[in-house]
TrEMBL record:
One of its GO terms (molecular function) is catalase activity. Heme binds at R72, R111, F160, R358, Y362, R369. Residues 1-19 have a biased composition (Low complexity). This is Catalase. It comes from the Bacteria. Decomposes hydrogen peroxide into water and oxygen; serves to protect cells from the toxic effects of hydrogen peroxide. The active site is at H75, N147. Residues 30-49 are annotated as: Disordered. It comes from Nocardioides marmotae. Residues 28-416 form the Catalase core domain. It catalyses: 2 H2O2 = O2 + 2 H2O.
């Protein structure tokens, strides 16, 4: 686990550690009194009624009754591991973040997950996978909360509850447990056609990975990075697995789901246990930070779009190695709390409206999931640097703060380092400063820009890039999943979207469903990169 060093937490001087000494020679109750017997309740005679005065019985049962915490509202099912990230030094012209410095080693914890299933659901279902990394950097924690699919279902975070309500089991029957084969999912994605791109990735072999070790990861959003000179670039983050990208076949996924529902969790644990440490390279696509935040006609703030790697190559900037399994699943995998707002100097957010909502949502959900505002004191969440946040008290407060003046500037706690005129140069040079971006003067509206309107051409591009066998898998996936729907109107509406993506795909799925194939309602666009586009390179200097 993460060391306790450097945090404001700790017991009063001289007090023993709070860790429970489970290996000690004797048993105690929660307050340290030794016990002779924890196997028999206190009774009036050996057959008599149990006595209310048995505090140990009540304490033991009460604690047990409160062992469960709520599972994550999404991404409830997961597995994780500790590791190290080593910077290559190739990103310094783009970001001043110390984590990218050449040879710099930073401890990390990674949690992989499925999205829709509950905590006990099977690993091999067709779903998006989470790939969340917490970097315990010298400048504070940086969380890269990524998925294995480079686009998202929606363009605006206000629709997140809607897409999750549609994807989770039906409220009446509470089925299906963890997959997209049901009416509300297809109802949503056929009514919200911006979801068609993510959905096609789900229906492809990417939706059923062979192993967490063989998945890519994508930050999805465009971030804004800053170098030491204050220059900014727009950046998309990519994880590339050293073992390559591999998938199960649908038949394998189905069988393994029955035989070993913990398949991915077991695979990750066993590989690390055997010393076959999984590795990924972190890479970036870098774009000039132009006022319109577009690149090659693609809106960089639209999370349903990729930028093809052919026109913006992914540049490697560091290597991740997972080399240690958790020793306590609850303390590490369950209690870890990621947040896209956990940023370090040199990495900032953009105005992507999905990212903006995420900045609010993660803290909010963790307040209830982890029981109050002090969850960053939980060992796995603690930064590996000293904290001085002036946050006080609250549920599950473990720190015993010294000092009397939790505000700045103050003149009572050993001087006044933040007073006006104080020389901050030494202490503050590594402080996080938001990029000084101009916010356009604009009218308040509830609408998307026109650049978000094209919901189909990148889906078609994805389809056309597939090999024949991959196309066959996609056709069979759509046919199987839609075949589970009860509502004919939902199937017909989704077929209309498929007609707008590709006539062959639509015809094949329609035949499988025993329905007529509709005509497209928009002209098909192939989005061939023009020769001019393929000349464009990011400002990233080659190593
Ligand atoms: C988990 C909200 C979009 C990746 C979560 C959680 C919430 C949430 C509430 C549970 C967190 C917890 O209990 O600790 C949202 C909202 C989104 C959004 C409101 C859109 C507005 C995304 C996107 C990605 C993503 C685009 C990928 C790029 C993840 C991952 C986790 C997660 C990987 C699991 C983290 C873990 O392993 O603990 N999300 N999410 N989410 N989300 Fe999102």
């Amino acid at each position: 686990g993460a060391p306790a060093t450097g945090t404001a937490t700790g017991a009063p001087t001289g007090a023993p550690p709070t860790a429970r000494a489970q290996q000690s020679a004797y048993l105690t109750n929660a307050t340290g009194t030794r016990l002779r017997d924890t196997d028999h309740s206190l009774k009036a005679g050996s057959r008599g009624p149990t006595l209310l005065q048995d505090h140990h019985l009540r304490e033991k049962i009460t604690h047990f009754d409160h062992e469960r915490i709520p599972e994550r509202v999404v991404h409830a099912r997961g597995a994780g591991a500790h590791g190290v990230f080593e910077g290559y030094g190739t990103a310094t012209s783009v970001s001043m973040a110390g984590v990218f410095a050449k040879g710099k080693e930073t401890p990390v914890f990674v949690r992989f997950s499925t999205v829709l299933g509950s905590r006990g659901s099977a690993d091999t279902v067709r779903d998006t996978r989470g790939f969340a990394t917490k970097f315990y950097t010298d400048e504070g924690n940086w969380d890269l909360v990524a998925n294995n699919i480079p686009v998202f279902f929606i363009q605006d975070g206000i629709k997140f509850p809607d897409v999750i309500h549609a994807g989770k089991p039906h409220p009446d029957r509470e089925i299906p447990q963890a997959q997209s084969a049901h009416d509300t999912f297809w109802d949503f994605v056929s009514l919200h056609t911006e979801a068609q791109h993510h959905t096609m990735w789900n229906m492809s072999d990417r939706g059923i990975p062979r192993s967490y070790r063989m998945m890519e990861g994508f930050g999805v959003h465009t971030f804004r990075c800053m170098n030491a000179e204050g220059g900014t670039s727009l950046v998309k983050f990519h994880w590339k697995p050293k073992l390559g990208v591999h998938s199960l076949t649908w038949e394998e996924a189905q069988m393994i789901g029955g035989i070993d529902p913990d398949f991915h969790r077991r695979d990750l644990y066993d590989a690390i246990e055997a010393g076959a440490y999984p590795e990924w390279e972190l890479g970036v696509q870098v774009f000039p930070d132009e006022p319109d935040q577009m690149f090659a006609g693609i809106d960089l703030l639209d999370p349903t779009k990729i930028v093809p790697e052919e026109i913006a190559p992914v540049q490697p900037i560091g290597k991740l190695t997972l080399n240690a399994n958790p020793t306590n699943f609850f303390a590490e995998v369950e209690q870890i709390a990621f947040h896209v707002g956990h940023l370090v100097p040199g990495i900032d957010v953009t105005d992507d409206p999905l990212l903006q909502t995420r900045l609010f949502s993660y803290v909010d959900t963790q307040l209830s999931r982890l029981g109050g505002p002090n969850y960053n004191q939980i060992p796995v969440n603690r930064p590996h640097v000293p904290t001085n946040d002036m946050f006080r008290d609250g549920f599950h407060q473990h720190a015993v703060h010294s000092g009397v003046a939790p505000y700045k500037p103050n003149s009572m706690d050993g001087g006044c380092p933040f007073a006006a005129g104080t020389d901050l140069s030494e202490e503050q040079t590594r402080a996080f400063v938001e990029a000084a971006v101009t916010v356009a003067e604009a009218t308040k509206v509830r609408e998307n820009p026109a650049s978000y309107d094209d919901h189909y051409s990148q889906v078609r591009q994805f389809w056309l890039s597939m090999t024949p066998v991959e196309k066959e898998h996609i056709i069979r996936a759509y046919t199987f999943e839609l075949g589970k729907c009860y509502e004919q109107a939902v199937k017909e509406r989704q077929l209309q979207s498929l007609a707008n993506i590709d006539p062959v795909l639509c015809q094949e799925v329609a035949t499988g469903l025993g329905l007529p194939a509709p005509e497209p309602t928009i002209p098909l666009q192939d989005l061939e990169p023009s020769p001019a586009l393929s000349q464009i390179k990011g400002p990233f200097p080659p190593d």
